[in-house]
Amino acid sequence: MPLSFFMYIPTRVIAMKGTGKDNKIADVIVLGAGLAGLSAAQRLGDASLVLEKENRPGGLVRTECFNNYWFDRVLHLLYFPDPLTKLRVQEILGTDLAQCTPLAWVETQSGTVRYPLQMHLGGLEKSSAFSCLVDLMKAKLSHSPRLSNNFEEMLLHTFGSSMCRIFLLPYNRKLWKRPLTSLAPFDFQWTISKPNLKHVFKGIIFPDSEFDAYNYQGFYPRPPMNSSVRGMELLSHKLAGQVFDLRLNHTVTKIDTKRCIVYVMNDQRMMSFRYRSNCISTIPLPETIRMCRQTPDDILRDCDKLLRNRVLSAAFSIKGPRPVNNGHWRYYADESIIFTRLFFMHEFDPLTAPEDGWGVCAEIVQPAEVPMMEPKGILNRALNDIHRSGVLPPTCEVVDQHLIIIDPGYVVFTKENKDIITRMRDFLADHGVIPLGRYGRWEYSSMGQVMRDAYTAASRVAVTSSAFENNSSVGNESPGIEF
Ligand SMILES: Cc1cc2nc3c(=O)[nH]c(=O)nc-3n(C[C@H](O)[C@H](O)[C@H](O)COP(=O)(O)OP(=O)(O)OC[C@H]3O[C@@H](n4cnc5c(N)ncnc54)[C@H](O)[C@@H]3O)c2cc1C
To answer: What is the best residue among 236, 253, 446 to mutate for testing ligand 1's pocket, by most ligand atoms within 8 Å of CB?
Structure first.
């Protein structure tokens, strides 16, 4: 039987025996080599083995290069949940990690303002700024957001009707692609800054003033010119280099929690790997549940209730002078525009494109259960809307275009699925499988958060491992999530 996650491991965790790479047994098997899986494995050292279905590690944190134009798979800015995670990332990236203070804009029919809109209302037309302020005061006087029944109600009760009409409701309809009344009022909104009155008033009088949003202390890798890897992938690439045993092209198909065996397809061959203490899964929660031989029927049936959205990143390589006033990214409230955001790769790292060019990426969100449209049609529509948005000067020419598909992208939070998620996580933990990462835990988390949680999980699973002791140069874990 595997050890349950909370159980103290009484003897020293025995590192893999033999010569390493050919062994099919490890103390801990990590499923998935995204940032969460790689971070856990790096901490576990030679006590772990990682199985990844793709031919390159990194998961979401990969950066595609199309003829010298680099595109992150999604908009990726690093920020840290605690000083220890920051220190660890600094250790991994060294001098390649550069500070990147983000400048983002919000486009609405009432004007263009700095992000977040609620702290820069002075940039809107005067009548709109006035009604935003009046409605915010009304909401504050008559509602307690904590009592909201759903996401839409929470937004109206927190911000008032004008800010919701101008930006929050249309934008969130584009992002979630389902009735906002069907979404949970809490649990996934930590990136939305609360309208603190002092900051709201300051933003009306000084619309260009800085506001410290959740990600204002941002970082981004900026390696030297000749680096073979650029973009945020540099983080997962360097992290993967510190992982003891990483097996690519290994697709996990089944987990037998009773016998502690993970079954895998590799090059059309079925293989099996055995773990001694635990299995850490960063594979999406419903998939992990479906793969477990021991999952009872009632939990299995709930898998279909866990909805998600896919993200399509439409990446365009542009030849021509670089725009200077677009900022790092821009939000679009107009629901006739296909994308939620545009982001500009050269603002994160000027070396992500040839000197006479730049890259722009459009983030498009779709419900994962709806069949995909033809990629060409999506790219045409995105390009048409980029022209409409006015960010592409007439002197510039689009020289290449690609569609990158991310599924799952956003986990959908309804009031009903909170209990389902908890039950699934508990079932796995009781059977020695630790769900980890954004999709493994089915949550809305950032890169820094999944890394922090992976370090915490690794420290608890192998507290006595010699490999772990050798690896733990930075000190005690930060508290992170409750498992
Ligand atoms: C649109 C968008 C924007 C974001 N912006 C930011 C941002 O600005 N800043 C920030 O900090 N975070 C951001 N994030 C969040 C961040 O990208 C994630 O938190 C993080 O990358 C998740 O890492 P992970 O390892 O948990 O998951 P993943 O990267 O998904 O890793 C899971 C791995 O498991 C592998 N796998 C799946 N199934 C199998 C199988 N059957 N067998 C073997 N392997 C398998 C996958 O191939 C993948 O490599 C954003 C996310 C999205 C979607």
So the answer is: 446
> Tokens 């958060």 — which residue?
449
Residues in the chain: 483
Of the chain, the percentage scoring pLDDT greater than 70 comes to 89
One-letter amino acid of 391: V
For residue range 412-465, list pLDDT tens digits in order.
999 889 999 999 999 999 999 999 999 999 999 999 999 999 999 999 885 444
Q: Which domains does the chain have, with CATH numbers?
A: 25-59+233-304+414-471 (3.50.50.60), 104-205 (no CATH)
CB of 447 closer than 6 A to ligand 1? yes
Closest atom, ligand 1, to C-alpha of 32: 34
Please determine, for residue 15, whether its predicted confidence score (pLDDT) is greater than 60. Answer: no
| Residue nearest to ligand 1 atom 10, measured at CA | 446
Give 233 or 123, the one with higher predicted confidence: 233
Which residue's CA is the closest to the ligand 1 atom numbered 37? 283
Ligand 1 binding pocket includes 439 (Cβ within 6 Å) = yes
Helices 35-44 and 233-240 pack at an angle, to 10 degrees, of 30
pLDDT at 372 over 50: yes
| Of 112 and 19, the one with more pLDDT | 112
Q: Does 61 contact ligand 1 (Cβ within 6 A)?
A: yes
Of the candidates 244, 250, 245, the residue with the CA atom closest to the CA atom of residue 32: 250
Which of 20, 40, 21 lies closest to 30 in space, CA to CA?
Answer: 40
